[in-house]
Amino acid sequence: MVDLLARLVEPERWRNLLKMPCDELRAGMEARALRGLRPDADDSFERGFDVDIEAELLDWMDFHDFAGDGPLLESVCAALESGAEPEPLATGLWQLADWASPGTWRCMEGRGFLYLEPYCGGPLDGVSQLYEEATWGAALGEICRMDADDYAEKVVLDWMARRQDLDETLDEKQDPRILSTMQSHRRHSTALHRLAVTLDSGKNAESGEGLGVGLLVCREWHSMLNVGWGEFNLRGLLLSGWRGESP
Fold first, then answer.
1. C-beta of residue 7 within 8 angstroms of C-beta of residue 98
2. Per-residue pLDDT reduced to its tens digit, 35-73
3. Less crowded by CB within 10 Å, the N or C end of the chain?
4. DSSP secondary structure string, 56-123?
5. Which residues are registered as beta bridge partners of 245?
6. What is the pLDDT of residues 2-41, one digit of tens each?
7. Which residues of 83-95 are buried (b: 16+ CB within 10 A; e: fewer)?
8. Which residues, including other chains, have CB under 8 Å from residue 29's CB and lie 6 or more apart?
9. Could you tell me if 230 and 133 are in contact, meaning their C-beta atoms sit under 8 angstroms apart?
């Protein structure tokens, strides 16, 4: 079973971590002194525990021998140029993004069609379109304009209609999972609405109103190099640093 992940990330917090000297980042993780740099967790989403991410990042830095007073991202890009495998490098950047994230929205990939497709302007032509920027931009823009309860209700009604079209029962006496599945759809759709509103409220970041927030979408257990869109993506960070410049 593959999950779809949509991680909210505060770009400036992420950038500040990426430009931190390797030794300073390592010392901060070892001493648990960087926890104050994490944004507040949003209970609508899941998020890695501080201690787990600290351990994973330290292991990642040890494996690649990232050390010295140079910026972390500079060392990562240099490792790639020296022949290091890009996938493990990108995985570390994804973990570091969790440190700059209020949380990640997760759902089973197949359910992503239920939450996004009716709101993105047309049918999706395969799983790959679940991960396209145009799909998310259109769907979240539409979802954001709806009331959270209305959106959750639409999702549940759509799910019920799809089951009926497939001649599947909606009687919980015949399928005891019906109620729990309905509750799960409500919970996931309410959280996705929260994500849409959070992203919309972060659009004023460039004008100086807050730190802002970006979105990294990926398919779990698949290449981290495909995470992100445009200039806000892991492949671009590896190849050219932050927006084509050193961090």
1. yes
2. 999 999 999 999 999 999 999 999 999 999 999 999 999
3. N
4. HHHHHHHHHT--SSSBHHHHHHHHHHTT--HHHHHHHHHHHHHHT-SEEEEEEHHHHHHHHGGGTTS-
5. 242
6. 999 999 999 999 999 999 999 999 999 999 999 999 999 9
7. ebebeebbbbbbb
8. 54, 57, 58
9. yes
> DSSP class of residue 31?
T
Question: What is this structure's pTM?
Answer: 0.91
Residue with tokens 């901060």: 28
Scanning the structure block, which residue is given the tokens 């927030």?
213
- Count of Cβ atoms closer than 10 Å to residue 185 Cβ: 20
Residue with tokens 């709806």: 146
Q: Alpha carbon of 115 to those of 190, 194, 223: distances in Å?
A: 10, 13, 23
202 contacts 13 by C-beta, under 8 angstroms: no
- The token duo for 141 is 């823009």
Alpha-carbon gap, residue 42 to 148, rounded angstroms: 16
